[in-house]
Amino acid sequence: MAGIDNKAVAALVERARRDVDSGLLPAAQFALAFEGEVVVSEALGDCITDTRFHTYSAVKPSVALTAMELAAEGLFDIGSSVSDVLESFGANGKDAITVSQVMLHAGGFPYAPLGRTETTDRAARLAAYSSWRTDWEPGTRFEYHALSAHWVLADIITEVTGRPYADVIAERVMEPAGCSRWLGIGIDDQADVADVVGVGSLPSADELAALGLDELPGGVGEEMLTVFNRPWLRAAGVPGGGGIARAEEMARWYQAVLHNPDGFLHAETRSDAMVVRQNHPDWTGTPANRSHAFVLAGRDGKAGMRGHGHGASAGAFGHGGAAGQIAWADPATGISFAYLTNGLDRNDLASARRRVALSTRALACGKKQ
Questions:
Q1: Is the dihedral of CA 171, 173, 176, 182 positive or negative?
Q2: CA dist., res. 170 & res. 62, Å (int)
Q3: What is the pLDDT of residues 223-270, one digit of tens each?
Q4: Cα 160 from Cα 298, distance rounded (Å)
Q5: What is the pLDDT of residue 1?
Q6: Is the CB of residue 317 less than 8 Å from the CB of residue 48?
Q7: Cβ-based burial of 216 (10 A; exposed 0-12, middle 13-18, buried ≥19)
């Protein structure tokens, strides 16, 4: 197969099967795409290739790119204050926070809360923004905003279009790429979605000590992640982590972003999406290497710390999600890759290692151009 190393594909398949065959993960999918087509697709364990999985934060780029497309058309300015679009957001000293800072996880409100009412009622959500406060000075650091930032982006999309954000995202950046919607899956359309389940054990003291840690920093835990099994939440379409997709579609979507068929993305959108705008370090000390939409691998030898595989080109772009979900494309080989599982590994270090191992093997499948 031109452009694909079949021996390397066999090694990728073997690594992907390992955690399912051992009984750790109940199911997983992965797909490899090249020149606009899916060339390898596997369904492992209790699933088929048509099964849909929770992508968690791997959905974030589709939200960001939609907002960037609307900005490119002059509906708002990414460099302007959020409160210029969403007036209620400016309360409590947040009036200077820019849309760009929100996209770059530099807004200073990483843990701002929303309850069930705000999740399903936009008016209540807009009111809640007025009560949010910052934890640190916006623009001065990077701290991952797991859910809060992309709620703001979603409401900007709705505000400037007058339409539900999940519909706009599907129409603007999913359908033109030949993909179905990833957000806002109706309750009557969820029969093929795999429920997530907790698996494995917490990291051992020795694993943590090897990293100089007593414990991992707090984040989005198993209890919050399994909530996404609830039909009403799947239907709500949480923009920062409620994505639902198949690995084949994710790999195909990254091909579309890589090649931009029929110019479905404005040239300035795609160009901006490939430029690092945020490089403050994360909690590990690794520079974030984020554009307004993606995490870029970079050329500093720390691609693995960003979820990319070892050997990724500097321009490789993608985004991970909880439980080791991953999707990316690498311009150097022209391939894209996606991996999804419904096993929520309680050992975040193990799922991170799995993500890098799979991505490294996927990278090896592409022959250098």
A1: negative
A2: 9
A3: 779 999 999 999 999 999 999 999 999 999 999 999 999 999 999 999
A4: 33
A5: 45
A6: no
A7: middle
Query: Given pLDDT bands bounded at 50, 70 and 90, which one contains residue 200?
Result: confident
pLDDT at residue 356 tops 50: yes
| C-alpha–C-alpha distance, residues 268 and 261, integer Å | 15
Q: pTM of the predicted model, to two decimals?
A: 0.95
Q: What is the mean pLDDT of residues 100-121?
A: 96
SS3 sequence, the chain? Answer: CCCECHHHHHHHHHHHHHHHHCCCCCEEEEEEEECCEEEEEEEEECCCCCCEEEEEHHHHHHHHHHHHHHHHCCCCCCCCEHHHCCHHHHCCCCCCCEHHHHHCCCCCCCCCCCCHHHHHCHHHHHHHHCCCCCCCCCCCCCCCCCCHHHHHHHHHHHHHHCCCHHHHHHHHHHHHHCCCCCCCCCHHHCCCECCCEEECCCCCHHHHHHCCCCCCCCCCCHHHHHHHHCHHHHHHCCCCCCEEECHHHHHHHHHHHHHCHHHCCCHHHHHHHCCCCECCECCCCCECCECCCCEECCCCCCHHHHCCCCCCCCCCEEEEEHHHEEEEEECCCCEEEEEEECEEECCHHHHHHHHHHHHHHHHHCECCC
Q: Percent of the chain at pLDDT above 90?
A: 88
CA atoms within 13 A on the CB side of 4: 18
Average pLDDT, integer, range 359-368: 87
CB 276 within 8 A of CB 298: yes
